[in-house]
Amino acid sequence: MVYLNIPEDKNRLLSFYLATEEYVANKFDDKEYFFMWQVYPTVIFGRNQLIENEVNLEYCRTHNIRTFRRKSGGGCVYADMSNVMLSYITDENNVNFTFNKYINMIVLMLRKLGVNATASGRNDIMIDGRKVSGNAFYHTPRRNIVHGTMLYDTDMQNMVGSITPSDAKLVSKGIKSVRQHITLLKNYIDLSLEDFKAFMKRQLCDEEITLTEKDIEEIKALEQEYLSHDFIYGNNPKYNIISKRRIDNVGDMEIRIEMKNDIIKSINLMGDFFITGDIDAKIIKPLMNTPLERTRISEALPETLNDVIHNLEKEDFISLILQSKEQNLNS
Fold this sequence. Notes:
The chain has helices at 14-27, 51-54, 57-62, 95-111, 156-163, 168-181, 193-204, 213-227, 229-233, 279-287, 294-300, 314-330, and strands at 2-5, 33-37, 42-45, 66-69, 77-79, 84-90, 117-120, 124-127, 130-139, 144-150, 207-210, 241-247, 251-260, 263-271. The chain is of the alpha+beta class. It is globular. Keywords: ATP-binding, Ligase, Nucleotide-binding. Residues 28-212 form the BPL/LPL catalytic domain. InterPro entries: aa-tRNA-synth_II/BPL/LPL, BPL_LPL_catalytic, Lipoate_protein_ligase_C, LipoylTrfase_LipoateP_Ligase.
């Protein structure tokens, strides 16, 4: 695997590294690439999440924490200079295989340090039953990207305050709860963060290249999309019925539908699920102007949805849509 060396610039924002992933996926050859990066306090939320549902914007403003949206699915995470973010670019198409390959690489690397690391759930790495790394997946036309966190250390107060309600009591309880569910790598190894990064690079990569000035300029051009207000904040979709539920092995899913005369006029999906295909072409557009009836919805959708949203069963999705109708009738 090739390590991507990025000339250091401490003023770079998280958006630059997201653009770097996209640039490498679209422009570089078909080798596997890996790089590490760090940012000043930042919250990053998933492609399908509403920022006001996930981020305590007032806390972020008062504590100088930046907020960015990524193009991958998954949930909301906090990053700072005490932990390290990891990016992996591959041409493997199968989502499960890509996740498993990457996560197993990281698990084996940690075990070489004597750490009892294991893969867990959809996308997590655990140490002694506590989460130390979460990861997300993003499919581009040419390649696939897996990126995630490695919690070497972090500011726990900021982590909880930036992604939970601002009430001081809840923040306090949140910190206690988070400490019960996550762990910090520094408690398990005798390496500084810089030494750990060097070890990880040696273990995972056998080749290295450095981004050129031309690469940097093209990445900065790509970065502008990630910096735009519309991309970060989006628009709250209009709706008159809403339904949400956690679906096993898929994640949290929220559906907002605008109806007219029992016909779907618009539909929006939000949550921390992983998109693996063209959600607009295969789900959103087919459902437009479709009656809110089980048979008609089933006919409008493709036979399988797993190649659009990871692990999603068609029947579970239809039930969630119809649940919104039932909730609307009972309200």
